Amino acid sequence: AALQASSNASNMPPWSSCLLRAPSAGGSLPEWMRSCTCRDADEDASPGSSSSRSQKMAEELALAQERRSRETVTKHAAAAGQPSVLLYSVVDSPAGQAAAKQKPSTTAATSGRCEAHHVPTNATRGVPIETSNFVGEAAWMLVPGGVHESAPQDMVGCPHWRHFQGRRRLWEFRIQGRFKRKPEGELHVGITLRDFNYDQAVAAYSRAVKRLGLIFVKWKFYLSWGDRCKASKAPDAELSHLVTGLTGLDQIIVTPAGESPPPLTEEMAGLGVERKRLGYDKYKKEVGNIAQSINTRDAYTFCFWGPSPMIDAVNWQFRFGTVIPLGQFLEEWPLHFVIYERNQVEGSADPRHLESQKRYYVDLMFWSTGEEAITRNLPSRYNFSDAPGSLEAETAEAAKASVAAATDNARGRPSKEAATVQQGTPIKALLRQLLHSSRSNGDSASISTCEASSSAAASDEMSFGSGSEASDRAGWSRARVR
């Protein structure tokens, strides 16, 4: 826009016209830039000057992209209200088979910038998403402020307050759409750290909190800290994962081809297969049948809310009976909720989930608006864009109403969360015990340098990575706030 407004200005470089007619670029140097013949009148025509011009143009374009991206994500954060969650559908991330050859194989090392399309939270309808392997809609419904006090008046401004009334869940993910290709390997769903500083060992405090968190997980899963330090710089390095099969979802609805799937933001109780209604054993069997018959014709609706009472995404904290800030572990990086297919090399006993083995179907990146360091950091990696149509305006108005209602109803009422932290809990004592145990084993609670013991990290991963300490039965245990 700045280039367009001043295209006739005398101080504009001649090659600015190339930028004006250029498509959105996100990869390596595009063809239009390599073939551009624009040049300054006084520019030297000596050999190598063309390369210099191209480099200059590439740098200018990258800076312009980052500025636009920063303005966009800042606008989204302001419109969401405080506190809330920023959610983006990452489109065709370079992570995967090509990125696995990078050193390290994370999004930070790949050439080009990922496209990240805004998915406003608490929208009244599904927000369109599309990747190379999946097309459909996404919605994230959440309790305003992230605090559920069983008081309906606190949520009057929220479009989905009736959905949360009488329920303990703080949020619910919903994804609906069709597969563009039939999965050949096993599908996994969960959390991965696509953006993270892996040049550090795993701190003892992180291990202690992990052991505490696993008390509440009662099914098989795969957990890995990922490759760290020197190993993280190798080709096809593993990222951090906490994933499981489709049984980790709370509800799945299959709509046959030719029929209309249920509206994504309306009540879905009683539809499809639901773990709470069927019980885990029957649910696992039904989900196994669904996974085996996935095709490109039917529509699939995936709902996920199980850990929401314990993971307060709005305030970016764990709630295991006490408050544990997520930022202490993730630093200035977001989380990615992903659905991917893993094709393990035949005959390989390597349990790691490597990028070269994956095909991503869905990648939803999110973080709390209160984590300003994340908001500042990501525009250098992603091209952020608005949701289509009138969704931005609609959700901004709803957010204003929600914030106003929560503010009015909270006046003069003591904070239950504050009381919980001050009182202390048995879980808090357990965390101290686990941390003390980690220190006794020789781990440092505060130092996470690469000089830390790699053998400790390896044994820690093997204990939980196979799900050996998590029984294969129903659901997430409830964390009781006393």
UniProtKB/TrEMBL annotation:
InterPro entries: Duc1 (IPR013897)
Entries under Pfam families matching the protein: Duc1 (PF08588)
Ranges for domain Domain of unknown function at the cortex: 111-344
The protein's name in its UniProt record: Domain of unknown function at the cortex 1 domain-containing protein
Organism: Alexandrium monilatum
Stretches for region Disordered: 1-23, 39-69, 98-120, 457-482
Composition skew (Polar residues), residue ranges: 1-14
